[in-house]
From TrEMBL:
Pfam families per record: Peptidase_M16, Peptidase_M16_C
GO molecular function list: metal ion binding; metalloendopeptidase activity
Protein's name in the database: Peptidase M16-like protein
Cofactors: Zn(2+)
Recorded superkingdom: Bacteria
InterPro entries found in the cross-reference section: Metalloenz_LuxS/M16, Pept_M16_N, Pept_M16_Zn_BS, Peptidase_M16, Peptidase_M16_C
Residues spanning the signal sequence: 1-33
Domain Peptidase M16 N-terminal residues, every copy: 83-214
Classification of source organism: Bacteria, Pseudomonadati, Pseudomonadota, Alphaproteobacteria, Sphingomonadales
SUPFAM superfamilies tied to this protein: LuxS/MPP-like metallohydrolase
Keywords, sorted A to Z: Hydrolase, Metal-binding, Metalloprotease, Protease, Signal, Zinc
Length: 978
């Protein structure tokens, strides 16, 4: 089950051999060595990814090497239709920088997106907007210690816009416009990003990395850089960094999409074929090796931070060719970790000295092979460290049972089989990302069938003795280090070292054999009957009504072969409590599912669902509670039985409730540690006038939580209210009508209670001067926001869509002025929220993280933008640039079941839901400049506006304004005054 936050569901990269296994486990490793590329070229072998490997080749990919050394990989993929995904990976990251260049790789990434020889400064975003590209999601970039990757997902591709996009992107990478003006502007943006990320968490991360990777570049090469090095950056110094590392031999271009791979290859040759680097290709820096002479223990004292431990076993990184044997080793290492993680979680569920503990083996940035245990102690950190060390000691002392091994391998194989069934539905963007990741971590890719075949052979070799040997390998190292983060000193480094050196006894936390099967589940009742069926107009779906009042919406389709998505909506969600009544809505996300079902607790449910696609996730909507799952046809009957049993036969185990309470209290001091933390906790409550349904619980409410109170709140909500079941997916081989009647149709008729809160949600009271909230973080951090109430409900969906366009235009202008021009913010946000479960409660929110000195500037810019939108209609180009990407996002999403399930929630009881879902594209296409101005005039009125600023403790708005004046005075003096 994936409901437990301490045990994340297994996820594997689709086309990578280990993947993570990869997303969870493997940090970037290494690109293919240059000598291998040379070997491939000399041999005339275009399959450069597979040089020296016996991994079964994925024949869908076509590879090539241009005469200048640039490598490429291309393939056809029609998911979503009409999209082409382009990735350009440069083999340069933050560990390629000198001390004086720290942050340059990341700064250069920013500069590259501003303009080039083909694009005037700042125009790149607008050009791609006209192609339907959303900045930040469809076009983006990322810098890591070992690579810089540029991303472009181009929707509704035509030969013309694909050619133009390839030309523009190639020009940006080959010859970005690196002027002093551009460097100054993007330096401000990066400085804002650095400021916004600063605080205790960053200090802890930096100190931890420096300790764990002592003597290595990785310990001192965060991609964001430093204030000192960035402050000295010039067009000449950044340009020199570009010329040194940006060269064709260090580039890999990946294109996946709805087109001919031969066309993709020709475009790569056209726009990259004449690229030449200056001078010789420099060798990679020496990243260093773990220093065994460095201290083994570190205490980090950070007030208001919870206790935390990191225990790391650090080995030198070894470069390996990706072979079948290498894949075997990686899978076995993953299984060994899974075995220990299950034991650690089993102990936590039973009541341990820690809240959460997990182990994770990583190959980190061509620098180290690390197995790290992350531990959140309850109070006694020494006991928590000893407990985790004891579980590890047992893992390297005795082999696991074959049953334990089978439990973990069942989950892996079930996932790989699901991926095989859904291979044709794999998005092109994900395939492109997987290829880039494979290059970076020195791996190949294979087909889903090849993945399954290899794993089955590997699984057969995973004997208890083999797993014991693997465990001993990953839990031993020449260097072992520990970091304790604590709000007050626990005795310094010496005390931490003593705890690390203390003898430890092996702890047997292996799971006892559990016999759980669905035959143990008490009867849900006599199967019901179907009383009515009808097609949903305009959609390939049918409405089914059962004799007990349950309704279902079913779509039998092959969009995702072998996959069935289920969403059960019950009760009335946020409307089940009054706006001013205390509630325990905040407890449901984890504890409700984890508290068990019928005769089964968490361990029994884990055993029951092992190796099967049976899940249960919980969420709260405005007008319903939701249980959701991603299943498969063979598991659908038991999936629905389990969900129905959660409503009819809930179990009320106390341990998950107590664990939730302790978890909230453990992290409580983080709630105001940064402006962002304050926003995440309080924003929705503020916007609704402190409505209790969205206001965050205070410490007293958390401390008062008991299993009895939890049950008293949730039991009637599970037992009452309407039920709507959505089933979308591959249903050809199952009798879903019979399954429905025997599961949800067998439940007793449910009482329908009138929601006490009605359908009204208030908005924050109007203010003329921003309200003030405080954080306890860095003095240079602040946030500001302003919002206007809009509306809600299902009666006017067209205005809801037009408000999304208005918000996009507002956001585009705010981005240009606050970030691109002034560098005052890294990521300003404008959001339109239009709830459908309430008739009110909508808003248009404008916000940004800032330096205190820029708060007045933010409010001035937001005020100017709002006034201009009210006074003047937007231009045709601006409307198209912002409405187009929204329409493209909708068009792409509409090819999947998730999209339609979301839009059709409540459709079996309210026909307006279907009408609104079917009209989205037409509504967006119909938005005019007059509509945008009408809505701006209707809603963006100063007399209803609410604003709030989050400042460092002790600071006032006047203080922040004074900072701005002081900064302006210093700037004027620096440039001679104006």
């Amino acid at each position: 089950m994936s409901s437990d936050p301490a045990r994340a569901p297994l996820r594997f990269a689709r086309s990578m051999l280990v993947g993570a296994l990869a997303a969870l486990l493997l940090a970037p490793l290494a690109a293919r060595a240059q000598h291998e590329v040379a070997t491939a070229k000399q041999a005339g072998n275009s399959d450069w990814l597979y040089v020296g490997s016996d991994i079964p080749r994925d024949t869908a990919w076509q590879f090539g090497i241009l005469p200048n050394g640039l490598r490429y990989a291309v393939r056809n993929n029609g998911v979503p239709p009409g999209q082409v995904s382009i990735r350009v990976r440069m083999d340069v990251g933050s560990m390629f920088e000198t001390d004086d260049e720290r942050g340059y790789a990341h700064l250069l990434e920013h500069l590259t997106f501003r303009g080039s020889e083909h694009i005037p400064d700042g125009e790149a975003k607008r050009i791609w907007q006209r192609f339907g590209v959303t900045f930040g999601s469809d076009s983006n970039a990322q810098t890591t210690p070992t690579q810089t990757v540029y991303q472009l997902d181009l929707p509704s591709v035509t030969p013309a816009n694909l050619d133009e996009s390839m030309k523009l992107l190639a020009g940006m990478i080959r010859a970005p416009r690196i002027s002093e003006l551009a460097v100054a502007a993007e330096r401000g943006v990066v400085m804002a990003e650095l400021r916004e990320s600063d605080g205790p968490q960053k200090r802890i991360a930096d100190a931890t990395n420096a300790h764990l990777f002592a003597g290595q570049l990785l310990g001192d090469r965060s991609p964001i850089g430093t204030t000192a090095s960035l402050g000295k950056a010039t067009a000449a110094s950044v340009g020199a960094f570009h010329d040194r590392w940006y060269r064709p031999e260090r580039a890999v271009v990946v294109i996946v999409g709805d087109g001919d791979p031969a066309t993709f290859a020709r475009l790569i040759a056209r726009y990259y074929g004449d690229w030449k680097g200056e001078g010789t290709n420099p060798p990679d820096p020496d990243f260093g090796k773990p220093d065994p002479a460095a201290p083994a223990a570190l205490e980090i004292v950070e007030p208001n931070q919870p206790l935390a431990l990191t225990l790391a076993m650090v080995r030198p990184w070894k470069r390996r060719i990706d072979t079948v044997e290498n894949t075997r080793r990686l899978y076995l290492e993953f299984i060994a970790q899974a075995l220990v993680n299950r034991r650690l979680e089993n102990r936590a569920r039973a009541g341990a000295s820690y809240l959460v503990a997990t182990v994770e083996q990583q190959y980190v940035s061509r620098s180290a092979d690390v197995t790290a245990a992350s531990i959140v102690p309850l109070s006694d950190w020494k006991a928590a460290l000893a407990d985790v060390r004891g579980v590890i000691a047992d893992a390297v002392r005795r082999p696991p049972s074959q049953a334990d091994i089978d439990r973990e391998t069942n989950e892996i194989e079930a996932f790989l089989l699901k991926e095989l069934e859904n291979a044709r539905n794999e998005p092109g963007a994900r395939l492109a990302d997987d290829m880039v990741r494979a290059v970076d971590i020195n791996e190949t890719v294979t087909s889903p069938q090849g993945q399954v075949d290899m794993f089955r052979a590997i699984r057969a070799s995973a004997t208890p003795q083999v797993m014991l040997d693997i465990s001993r390998a990953i839990f031993s190292a020449p260097v072992t280090r520990v970091v304790l983060t604590t709000p007050t000193s626990a005795g310094g480094n010496g005390a931490v070292l003593a705890a690390l050196k203390a003898p430890v006894a092996a702890r047997d936390e292996r799971l006892a054999a559990v016999e759980a099967d669905f035959g143990q589940l008490p009867s849900l009742g006599k199967p019901g009957s179907i009383v009515a069926t009808a097609p949903l107009p305009g959609l390939r779906a049918e409405r089914i009504e059962l004799s007990n009042g349950v309704t279902a919406l079913v779509s039998n389709n092959k969009i995702e072969p072998g996959k069935v998505r289920v969403n059960v909506r019950f009760g009335t969600g946020n409307r089940s409590v009054a706006a001013d009544a205390p509630n325990l809505l905040w407890t449901g996300d984890y504890a409700l599912v984890a508290s068990g079902i019928g005769p089964w607790g968490q361990n029994e449910i884990d055993q029951l669902t092992n190796g099967r696609q049976i899940q249960m996730n919980f969420a709260i909507d405005d007008d319903a509670f939701e249980l959701s799952a991603e299943s498969r046809p063979a598991d659908l009957a038991d999936q629905l039985r389990l969900m129905a049993a959660k409503l009819a036969l809930p179990r009320w185990d106390a341990a998950p409730v107590e664990r939730l309470r302790i978890g909230y209290l453990t992290g409580y001091e983080l709630n105001d540690a940064t402006p962002n933390a304050v926003l995440e906790r309080h924003l929705r409550g503020w916007l609704t006038g402190n409505d209790a349904r969205w206001a965050a619980p205070d410490r007293a409410a958390i401390e008062a939580l008991t299993p009895a109170a939890f049950r008293a709140f949730w039991e009637p909500r599970l037992a009452s209210g309407p039920i709507e079941v959505q089933i979308f997916g591959d249903l050809e081989t199952v009798d879903y009508r019979k399954i429905l009647t025997e599961s949800f149709g067998a439940l007793a008729p449910r009482a329908i209670l009138a929601p006490p809160g009605g359908q009204r949600v208030d908005f924050a009271p109007h203010v003329t001067v921003p309200e003030i909230a405080y954080h306890r973080g860095e003095q240079g951090q602040a946030a500001a926001m302003t919002a206007w109430p809009t509306g809600g409900g299902r009666t006017n969906p067209r205005d809801a869509r037009a408000l999304e366009v208005l918000a996009a235009i507002f956001n585009d202008r705010l981005f240009d002025r606050l970030r691109a021009e002034q560098g005052a913010s890294y990521g300003p946000v404008v959001d339109s929220h239009w709830p459908t479960g309430f008739d009110t409660g909508g808003y248009l929110l404008v916000g940004s993280l800032l330096a205190p000195k820029d708060i007045d500037r933010f409010y001035g810019i937001a005020r100017d933008i709002a006034a201009d939108l009210v006074a003047r209609p937007v231009s045709a180009d601006e409307l198209a640039r912002n409405a187009g990407p929204i329409r493209e996002q909708v068009a792409r999403a509409s090819t999947g079941n998730v999209y339609w399930m979301f839009l059709l929630e409540g459709a079996t009881r309210d026909p307006r839901v279907t009408a609104a879902a079917l009209s989205i594209q037409d509504d967006l296409a119909a938005v005019t400049a007059a509509d945008v101005q009408r809505l701006a005039r209707q809603y963006l009125t100063p007399d209803r506006q609410w604003s709030l600023a989050i400042l460092p403790e002790g600071m006032t708005l006047a203080d922040a304004s004074a900072l701005n004046g002081a900064m302006s005075t210093r700037l004027d003096a620096a440039v001679g005054g104006r």
